Sequence to fold (681 residues):
Amino acid sequence: MKYEDRIVTAFTGCSVLWAVLGMLAGVYVAAELVWPTIDFGLPGLSFGRLRTLHTTLVLFGFGVSGLIATAFYSVQRTSHVRLFAPGLAWFVFYAWQLTIVLGGVSVMAGWNAGKEYAELEWPFDLAIAVAWVSFGVVFFGTIARRRMEAIYISNWFYGALIIVVAMLHIVNSLAVPATIGKSYSLFAGSQDAIVQWWYGHNAVGFLLTGGFLGMLYYFLPKQAEQPIWSYRLSIVAFWAFVYTYIWAGPHHLHYHSIPEWVQSLGMVMSLILLAPSWATMVNGIMTVSAAAKKLRSDPALKFIVLSLAFYGLATFEGPMLAIKSVNVFSHFTEWTIGHVHSGALGWNALITFGTFYFLVPRLAGTQLYSARMANIHFWLALAGVLLYVLAMWGAGVSQGVLWLSLDELGEVRFSFNDVMAAMKPYYLLRFIGGLLFLAGAVLMAFNLMRTFAGRRTVEIAPPAVPAARGLK
Amino acid sequence: MNFLSLHKRLERHSGLLIFGILVVSSIGGLVQVLPIVLDDAHGAPSAGLAVYSPLELEGRDIYIRESCSTCHTQQVRPLLAEVKRYGPYSRTGEFAYDRPFLWGSKRTGPDLARVGGKYSDAWHHLHLLDPRAVVPASIMPAYPWLAQRDADHGRSIAARMRALQMLGHPYTNEDIAAAPVQLEGMTELDAVTAYLQSLGRSMHAEPQP
Fold:
């Protein structure tokens, strides 16, 4: 019996492709904010549609493909069995990639459900639901047939990703279809807003945080060749995370027309969330500190450790932005964009890159094509994300302060247009930062392709360990 | 049985683990989201709120198609500077017919919750076709195709209104039957303009406290 790794390769390849295309779309919309006429009057290149394409490709193309690839890889190895129902797993692959391709085209053609990070229309929502539940069947099926007694911690996080995202997606997508490409949300107005940010915030929570923590808990110890520093801490952090995150959504709606108690509850729970978030960071840093020597020479580990630093930064910044008196300045500004990207680029993309540098040589049964190229990628990515985030902090704090500034006579001091015009240098810096980050991703795609081109046939079997007590 | 040995049962039974995650992750939603969704008071229209006319609805759906809410919010917060800049702060009852809500999360351009009646139709036409003709520093995209396309060129306005009627919007069957005729001869530009002019209308209709 061998591990089913071809599907891991397939998802990894698609993830890299979507990373490059999704970030290209991102860089292009960033350029449109500096040079607004470069859409050339074409609807498909128009800012609104292209930005939706950007978030769809990076979240569901790059992010989710990477999560499924690593979940399928690690669940087999932590369970010592071949993937359950490989045929169904391949169905998940084709259904998911087809949804991204056709969904991307539909967004450019103007199909849009109008909910942030859930813009795909109802036929795609159905396809996503079916593919996602199938993903869950393959994943939990593998766990149910495991030859290990305990379920390893990375699988709890992947499991929480599957269960909670299914719940969020299904509820938030409830709608009445009017035509094949248009539906109306079951919820309206304020109620819709509360449901949407319950979804939106926890897509961040369970996909971009929880899912990638699953990746961290498997690949960090593997790459550092160290066991997790504290198993007990990981248990406490996991349950605190699953319980607390769900409450934090309303901090996206501070001072909006929703009840005050919902806002305050969202704020308090967001502050509490700092504890489980940082507990996991401490666990990761302590694990890697035992392998500090390896950090100098190993590009994959460097990416993972840097991602941990950005994880710590973003999960500290998040609760701070959720405080109402801070949020009053940060809300609606570029600061939000900076915060999202310090998480999405600094944490999600970097840990995925590091994991791919670890994974692809193993899948190909060979060495990484160029460690030097991976090191250049590391510095491009670091420079890119720093430039991006610093530009957005500058822009966001300026907007927050200037918009709310009143003069001695109690009138607004700055016109909206003046503040908007002052954003141009920041937008240019952000574009350059994004371009650097994209250049690094292209370099990685080339490096991984060359690595895979030199592959040898590898099939890895589960280790022969004595059957554990109490085997299911 | 201490905490860790209790937990050993969870991590050895995948069914229990699934159940545990489902229960623990549901509590927040059940306490914080569900009561609002089930409370009709949070879905009730304010006194002055009218349902969108067919032309306004068409405009709103184009607004969604072009993802205008990526850059324009529709939510005036109850802050002095914001009320000064945009107008009366937003109330829950104004959004009862908004499916989905379009409050947005980012103000690259100004808030639009009170933009209705602030500019003429001609200004909106010019601005949508060539934003920099009216606001030189604007970074908004131009939407030249709006002028070239007929409103409701997909002939779906009746189907869309029926879906909304099903969701409780007060459209009569006569309203729906008359809708396609009302959109004849109109362009998408007219529709978007009509929608923008409707924003904040209910606040004008209501006596201010």
User: Anything to note?
Assistant: Chain A touches chain B through 97 residues (CB under 8 Å).
